[in-house]
Design brief:
Chain lengths: 347, 347, 347, 347
C-alpha cells in the first residue's frame, strides 16, 4: 500500500480524486487538507464521498511548513498555482513524489508561464524536472519523474485529438483553431464557494477569456513538440456550457498541402493510437462524440471529418474534465509512477 | 388592421409568433393551423399563450387546397420545407404576402438548395422573386417583395456579425470558420412531438451535422454577396447546448492581408452598423456576449477580438434563435412589408 | 399617463416589472434605483430589457431622504423588508400610492410579523391601512388603498387554490398541509449577486426553511379570513427546484366532515371562480397543472383531486413566481389602483 | 465468482447495475439482454460503461424460452412487470436466484397488485415466496429467499424515513401524507427511447399520477407491517423534477397522541437505526437533506422536524433513485443472498 496525501481535497477535482482512490486497492489516503472544510470529517463535509475506506479521515488545514506534511509516498496538489509553486519543490526535495494538478509546472519556459498566469515563477529549476503528464504522449518521462505536471483539462481534450496528426509532416497543416466548451466544474472556480451563480449559468451560453486562456501555451508547447515543429502555433477559445461536467473540443485545422494529406491515413493513425492506448477511443463519425459517453470515465473520444472542398480538417473530441481532464489522469499518472497497472481504479 | 394567418402555428416558432403578435396593435390573427392541435382552442392547446386577443381562436388542420385558405393580408409559413414549397407560390399568386420561415426560398440556386436539403425544388421561379429576409442587410428588397424568405437562425447569428467586414476589401480575409451553438428549440425538431429526449440533451454537449448543415449555403451566399466576392466561401459546424433558447456563434476569420486590416476600423464599422440598426448592438469585449442578454429580444449582439500574433479575427455573436432567429425577424419583416415602424411589437 | 418609480428595480422582480411596464400604454417609468447598477443606463445594465420606451433611463442610488424621491403617482418598492418599512409610510404620507413587494405590510398583527421576519415593525399604523394585494380575493380594499402589500409568491399559489374551499363551512376541513416548490428566482436571493451557486442548485433538490417560512403567517391569515374561521391554521414547507422560474403548490387538506363535502361542489366553486376571474384557470385533472403553462403569464392554474378512501383533498396549483407571484400581480394591482382595465399589459 | 445475468440491462437501472458490478470482486456478468441494443457490444452500445471487465460482453435479445437462459447463479430482471411475471417463477424453479427490479412481486395481495398495476398476476404462488427487498427492514427474509422483490424507488425513500416511527405505538400517528419528487430517471420511461422530451421537462415542474401511483400500495403494506397496524394507511403523490437523478421525499405525519410522542425519542430511534445500518444516515436538520449528498451512493439520508404547535411531524429523506432506489439496493440484496459483505461494490 502506498500512502497518499491530497492538498486541496475539497475542490471539485479533489473530490473526484477521493472518489477514485476509494476504489484503488493499492492506495491509502493518509492526509487531506482543505481551507473550507478543515476540522470536519470527510463524511460530514462531503456526504456523497462517505465510505468505509475513509472512516476516520478528516480535513486538515493546509500545512504551514514542510515539516508539517505527514509522511507519505506521494502528494497530489489540487491547489492554486501559487500554492503548488511553494510546496511542490520542497515535497520533491523531501523525497516524495508529487502530482501537481495546478498549472504551475506545465509550461517549460518560465517567461511564457509568467505571461500566461500573471504570476512570478519562483521554482524554474523544478520546472525543468517536471514531466508533462499526458501518459499517452509522454509516458516514459512520467514514469521516471518525481514531479508530474498534470495537464489542463482543455489541453488533454485538444492534444489527444491532435496527436494522430503527427503521422504527417508538420508542413501538412496550417494553424489549428480550437473551439472548446466546458461544463462549470472545468470552467468556473475550483470550489463551490468560488462558483458561478445559478442564474448566470443556467439557460445561458457564452465564450470567456477570448483574449487568451492560460491553457493555450501548454497546448501549443506540446503540439509543437509532437509535430516536430517548434514554430507550430494554434489558437484556443473556451466557452461555458450550462451543465456541470464534460468538455467538448472542436478543432479546425487547415490542410496546407492537401496532396500530402488523406483522411484515411489520419484515421489509420487514430485507430493505431486508440488500439495502443486503453483510454483513447476513435470514432469514424464526429457526430457520435458526446460528453455523456465519457462521463465519469477516463476515456478521451476522438473523431475526424475532412472537408475536402475547403481543405479543412475538423477534429471533435470529448473528455470528462474532472476525470481524463483532472483526477482520472492524475490517478493514471500515479499508477505509472508506482508501476501499477495503468487502468487500476479507472476501468 | 392587417389580417394574418399562420400555418404551423403550434411549433416552437409558431408559438413565439403568436406571443409577439398578441402585442401587435396593427395585426389581427385570423387563422392558425397545426396538425398536432387541430380542433383545439389556442387557450386549451397552449395555455401559456392564452390571451384576450385570441379569445375564440382555434387551431385548424392545414388547408388541403388553396381555396380553403381564409382570406388574409399575409401568411406566415412556419412549416416544413416541402409544405412551404407547395403553398408559398400559390398564396403569392392569390395576392397574399408570404413570410416563409422554412428554408425553401432562401437559396437562389435551386441546385444548391437540392443538394443541401435533399429535396427537389419545384418552384424555382418563386425562388427568384423571394427576398432574403435579414432586414439589416436586405431591407429594400424585402420592402417590395411578395415573398420573404425568413433567414435561418444560425445564418442570422453569423451574417450580422460578419456584415461589418464588408468595410474591407474582400481579399483582406481568408475563409471564415463558424462554430455555432444552439439551444434545443433551434436545433431539435420544430415541435415538442419531434423533440429530443431529456436524457440525451441534459448534462450533455455534442456537435451535429459535422459533415454539413443546410444553413451553410445560405450563409455563404449572403456573405459572398455583401463582401462583393462571388467566390467567398466559409465553413459552419453546429453544436447542441443543453438549454432551450439561444444561439452563440463564434467565427474565426483569418486575416490574409494584415496590412489592410485594423481592429479599430472594424469596430468603427460595427459601431456604425449598430448605430444605424435598432436591433444590432456592438460590444467592445466579446466576453460580454451572452445568450441571456438577448433572451426574448430581437437583438443581435456582436463583438470582435483580433489576435494580431496569429492574424486571426474572432467574432462572437448572440441571438435568441426563436426571436431574431425566427419569429422576431419575421415580425420585423412583416412591419417592413406593411410600412409599420420596424420595431412595432418588438421593442 | 401615470408616472411610476421603482425602488430596487435591478432585482429579479424589478426586472420583470420593467419588462411588463414597457408594454403598458398608460404608464411612464420615471425613476429606477438599484444599489448594484446605480449610475448605469438600463440598456447597459440589463441588455435584455433595452427598449425604446426606456431610452435615457438610468439607475440611481436609492434616495436617502424622502425629499429626494422624484415626483410620481406611484412607487413600487421591490426592496428588502427593512427598506420598505422605512419608505412606504413616508411615500404614502406624501400622497403617492405605494405597492410594496416586500413582506413588510402583509401581516396585520405586528407581533406575528416580528416573529416571522425577525424584524421590529416600526410602522404598525401603516400596517392597518395596507390592503393585502391578491385582487381575486381582496379587490375592493385594494381599489381604495394607498398602500398595497403585494402578496408573497408562495402565498398567491396557495391562497388562489384554497379560495374555492370557502364554498363550504369551515368545519368541513382539517388543517391544510402545503408542500411548495419554487425555482431559484423565487427562492434564492432577490438579485443575482445574492444568488445561489450553480453547483449547489443544478441536479439537486432539497427542502428549506422546514422549521418555518415567513410566508406561512400571511397564508394563514388570509385563509382564516376567507374561510370565516379565525382559528384556521395550516402548515407550509418550501422546496427548491433546479430551474429559474415557476412555483408549484401541492396542498393536502383533510376532509373532516365528508358528509358536507363533494368534489363536484368544489369544482363548481372553482369553475365559478375561474369564470369570474380573468387570471384564474381551473383544470379538472391535477396532472395537467405545470409551471410551464403559466410561464411568463399572470395566470394561476388550479385543480383538485379528492381521495375519498382517505378523505383527503389534494389541490395542485401553479403560478409564475415572478409574474402572478410578484411583478404580474403588482401590475394588476396598479391597474386596479388607477382604474385601468385589470389586464392591461398583462394579457 | 458468482455468475450473474441481467435482463433489460440497457435501461437506466440496468446501466447502473453494470456500473456497480464492474467493481464487484466476486461477480462475473455472463449475460445481458436488451431489445434496444441486442447484437451490439456493451462498449459500442454504452460507451460510458466500457471497461476491461466487460471486454467481449454483448447484448443479446431477451430469451424466448427458459431453456435459452444461459446458466448462472443469479438473474436480475430489470424488465417491465409483465416480463418479470413470466420469467421470475421459471428461473427460480430452475434453481437460480432472482432479484426482480420490476413491481411484479412486491405486493403480497394479488388483488391489490392487479388494481394498482392494471395487470393480471399470473404467478400468485411466487408472490408468497418473494421477499420484499429493503435490507434494513427485511434482511432475514431476504437472506433465505430465492426471489427478491427489489423495492420501488419512492418506496425506499419513504419507508426508510418512516421506519423509526415504529418505536412508538401505532396509534401515536395519524395518516402520513407523502409528497415525493424524482428526477427523470426515476419518473419517466425506463429507457431513453421511452423518455420524456427535453422541452417538456426542462424548466418545468409538475405532479403526476395524482389519482394514485403504483408504489403507494407497497409503501402502505410495509408501513402497516412494521408499525404493527394492519389498518395503517397513507397517501403518496409524486412530482417530476427537471433533473436526471435523485428522489426527495417529504412526509407529513399528524401526531394523533402528542402525549405519547417526543421528537427526542424519534431522533434516538433514527440514530439507532443509522448506527445499526451502514446505508442509513440521520441528520438533525431536515434542511441539510439534499439529493446531491446521496448522488451515486447507496445512502438513504433521513431527518425530522416536529411542529409542536400543529402536532405535525415532517420527515424529509433523500436517495439516489438509481442507487438505493434501484441498482444499489439490488447489489446489496445480491450481497445478502450470497453471503458477501453487504457493502461490497457499494462503499
Amino acid at each position: 500500500m502506498k500512502r497518499v496525501g491530497i492538498l486541496g481535497a475539497g475542490g471539485f477535482t479533489g473530490q473526484m480524486l477521493l472518489r477514485l482512490l476509494s476504489h484503488h486497492p493499492e492506495i491509502s489516503v493518509v492526509f487531506i487538507s482543505s481551507s473550507e472544510y478543515a476540522g470536519k470529517s470527510l463524511a460530514d463535509a462531503l456526504p456523497a464521498l462517505d465510505s468505509i475506506q475513509y472512516k476516520g479521515l478528516s480535513f486538515s488545514m493546509h500545512p504551514d511548513s514542510i515539516e508539517n506534511f505527514p509522511d507519505a509516498d506521494l502528494y497530489f496538489l489540487a491547489t492554486p498555482d501559487s500554492v503548488s509553486l511553494t510546496w511542490a519543490p520542497q515535497l520533491v526535495e523531501r523525497g516524495y513524489k508529487v502530482i501537481d494538478i495546478s498549472g504551475a509546472f506545465r509550461i517549460q519556459d518560465a517567461a511564457v508561464f509568467e505571461k500566461a498566469y500573471k504570476l512570478k515563477h519562483n521554482a524554474p529549476e523544478a520546472l525543468l524536472q517536471a514531466a508533462y503528464g499526458i501518459p499517452e504522449i509522454n509516458r516514459n518521462r512520467i514514469a521516471s519523474a518525481s514531479l508530474v505536471a498534470n495537464p489542463g483539462c482543455y489541453a488533454s481534450a485538444a492534444l489527444l485529438s491532435l496527436y494522430p496528426l503527427s503521422a504527417f509532416p508538420p508542413e501538412t497543416f496550417g494553424m489549428p483553431v480550437l473551439d472548446g466548451k466546458s461544463g462549470t466544474s472545468g470552467a468556473g472556480g475550483r470550489t463551490e464557494k468560488e462558483a458561478l451563480p445559478f442564474s448566470g449559468v443556467y439557460e445561458n451560453f457564452r465564450a470567456y477569456k477570448v483574449q487568451g486562456h492560460q491553457h493555450e501555451p501548454e497546448i501549443r508547447q506540446e503540439f509543437a513538440s509532437f509535430m516536430g515543429n517548434p514554430a507550430a502555433s494554434l489558437r484556443f477559445t473556451p466557452h461555458l456550457i450550462p451543465m456541470y461536467q464534460g468538455i467538448l473540443m472542436t478543432a479546425y485545422i487547415p490542410v496546407a498541402s492537401p496532396e500530402n494529406f488523406s483522411i484515411e491515413k489520419l484515421r489509420k493513425s487514430a485507430d493505431d493510437f486508440a488500439h495502443r492506448e486503453l483510454f483513447v477511443r476513435h470514432y469514424n463519425d464526429p457526430n457520435e462524440i458526446e460528453t455523456r459517453k465519457v462521463r465519469l470515465t477516463n476515456f478521451a473520444d476522438i473523431s475526424y471529418h475532412y472537408d475536402s472542398e475547403h481543405h479543412l480538417l475538423i477534429a471533435v473530441s470529448a473528455i470528462d474534465n474532472l476525470m481524463k481532464g483532472a483526477a482520472g489522469v492524475a490517478v493514471q499518472n500515479l499508477n505509472i509512477l508506482f508501476g501499477f497497472p495503468e487502468e487500476m481504479a479507472l476501468l
